[in-house]
């Protein structure tokens, strides 16, 4: 993992590439790709359709997040409400929880 460690209000956290939200540690822009269709995920509407087809359901507990849960697992996907804040860490979370369905690529 790379990025910058930020200490604020007694809490330390790792911020990946604070300059650009869609760049990974390589400095290149990242995109999430749905492998069966080879389609780049360009919006939450597109992502939601793909996740629904894989058995994911929406959770509406937190108004600041888009959350998805799959009944057959303990997995929960939590995404920022604003697609412009969709970062590589969110993309990799989706990839890990949906093996062979999604991939993160450099553009």
Automatic annotation (TrEMBL):
Domain of life of the organism encoding this protein: Eukaryota
InterPro entries recorded: FPF1 (IPR039274)
GO annotation terms (biological process): regulation of flower development
Family recorded in the similarity comment: Belongs to the FPF1 family.
Protein name: Flowering-promoting factor 1-like protein 3
